[in-house]
TrEMBL record:
Matching PANTHER family: LACTOSYLCERAMIDE ALPHA-2,3-SIALYLTRANSFERASE, SIALYLTRANSFERASE
Catalytic reactions of this protein: a beta-D-Gal-(1->4)-beta-D-Glc-(1<->1)-Cer(d18:1(4E)) + CMP-N-acetyl-beta-neuraminate = a ganglioside GM3 (d18:1(4E)) + CMP + H(+); a beta-D-Gal-(1<->1')-ceramide + CMP-N-acetyl-beta-neuraminate = N-acetyl-alpha-neuraminosyl-(2->3)-beta-D-galactosyl-(1<->1')-ceramide + CMP + H(+); ganglioside GA2 (d18:1(4E)/18:0) + CMP-N-acetyl-beta-neuraminate = ganglioside GM2 (d18:1(4E)/18:0) + CMP + H(+); ganglioside GA1 (d18:1(4E)/18:0) + CMP-N-acetyl-beta-neuraminate = ganglioside GM1 (d18:1(4E)/18:0) + CMP + H(+)
The name this protein goes by in its record: Lactosylceramide alpha-2,3-sialyltransferase
UniProt xrefs under Pfam families: Glyco_transf_29
């Protein structure tokens, strides 16, 4: 059959259709390559039992030493001076509307153009501090548990359970991994797409800390607070399946103060301020992990980390402790600058402001000769 030559107008439309199709193919290919690099953890990941013992001993020493009040804040102040805001409140409070700085940037760095949605949300949230039982402790020792494959086989679970506050990130599971990651969750910090789908990952008194990136994130968290389901059409705006309900009471839900994200990105990591780019972000968004470390510095007196450190020079090692992605998958992402983040964490650990319990960033307990 002979095709009619498209008119000028149609040509333009046709071009767009072709572009969209090419774009979709590209996205599909990226997705494919992301999924095809699976790591056989059992085969690749061998942990020397001596190394695991040293890690456990080191973590035990950290939790048994006397807790030093304000230790981490003093350290951050020394390192970053006025760039670190000593008195930032970790979670969004009702009086946030009086703080103009918050409305200068778009999410996740601020609430520019979101003051109404924010207002609606804040009216539903009765609390914005740590629960009284934790608040009243004179010295709080916290650990941020990252998702890194470096946790496999170290059996740090027992030591991690002894921290006052255990912060977990996104969908990193506890069920099935308690020997390595413990079973205590005081805070789960995540964006909507990261919220665990399994109700067993939520604990009765755990806090749920939401990090808001986009307009539908406000709708999602509001629906969760009200124990409603989000309309189907809205779900299309998320880049993966989001939880329909989360078994958390409104009094246990918090919104991360975007000032913490702004401080992490522009002041501490010294990323350039946001520019609009066609593909979304500009490698200036910190990972939830680094945001959580900065959050912990505001919440706690002492901070440790475990499960941090992406060793990009080992593309075939497991990326996470709970799935079979390879380290190589990290090279495909476009939001985060892993190198800059690792340097920041290394600095904190070498200056002894933060302890690295699994040694993936900087190892204080590893045998020097290895
Ligand atoms: C964690 O495990 C210990 C021992 O297995 C158990 O006693 C405790 O109740 C568990 N805690 C939670 C929050 O599941
Ligand atoms: C949320 O709604 C479900 C029904 O959809 C109900 O079973 C559950 O008890 C509710 N949860 C709360 C905390 O009200
Ligand atoms: C990460 O940031 C550093 C500067 O801090 C820059 O030199 C490097 O090119 C960035 N890497 C990527 C992949 O954007």
């Amino acid at each position: 059959m002979k095709m009619k030559r498209p008119s000028g107008f149609l040509k333009g439309t046709f071009k767009h259709v072709i572009l969209v199709v090419i774009g979709l193919c590209f996205v599909y290919m990226v997705k494919l390559s992301f999924h095809s690099k699976e790591c056989d953890m059992a085969r690749i990941h061998y942990v020397n039992p001596e190394h695991a013992k040293r890690a456990q001993k080191y973590a035990e020493q950290v939790v048994q030493a006397e807790c030093r009040p304000s230790f981490v804040k003093k350290g951050m102040g020394r390192l970053f001076m006025e760039k670190y805001s000593m008195n930032a409140s970790p979670f969004v409070r009702r009086d946030i509307k009086t703080q103009e700085a918050i409305f200068k940037y778009k999410p996740p760095f601020g609430f520019h153009k979101f003051s109404e949605k924010l207002q609606d949300l804040l009216e539903l949230l009765p609390e914005y501090d740590l629960p009284e039982s934790l608040q009243s402790k004179p010295c709080k020792r916290c650990v941020v548990v990252g998702s890194g494959g470096v946790l496999n086989g170290l059996q740090l679970g027992y030591a991690l359970n002894q921290f006052d506050i255990v912060i977990r990130l996104n969908n990193a599971p506890v069920q099935g991994y308690t020997d390595d990651v413990g079973n205590k969750t005081t805070i789960r910090m995540t964006y909507p797409e990261g919220a665990p789908l399994s109700e067993h990952e939520y604990y009765p008194n755990g806090l749920f800390v939401a990090v808001l990136f986009k307009s539908v994130d406000f709708d999602w968290i509001q629906a969760m607070v009200k124990n409603e389901t989000l309309p189907l059409w809205m779900r299309l705006f998320f880049w993966k399946q989001v939880a329909e309900k989360i078994p958390v009471l409104p009094k246990h839900i918090r919104i991360l103060n975007p000032l913490i994200v702004k401080e992490t990105a522009f002041d501490i990591l010294e990323y350039p301020e946001p520019r609009a780019t066609f593909w979304g972000w500009d490698k200036n968004v910190p990972t939830i992990g680094v945001m959580a470390v900065v959050l912990a510095s505001h919440l706690c007196d002492e901070v440790s980390i475990a499960g941090f450190g992406y060793d990009l020079s080992q593309p075939n090692t497991p990326l996470h402790y709970f799935d079979n992605l390879c380290m190589a998958a990290m090279n495909g992402q476009r939001m985060h600058n892993v190198t800059t983040e690792a340097k920041f964490l290394q600095k904190l650990i070498k200056e002894r402001i933060v302890r690295d319990l699994s040694g993936g960033i900087h190892c204080d307990f590893c045998r020097k000769t290895s």
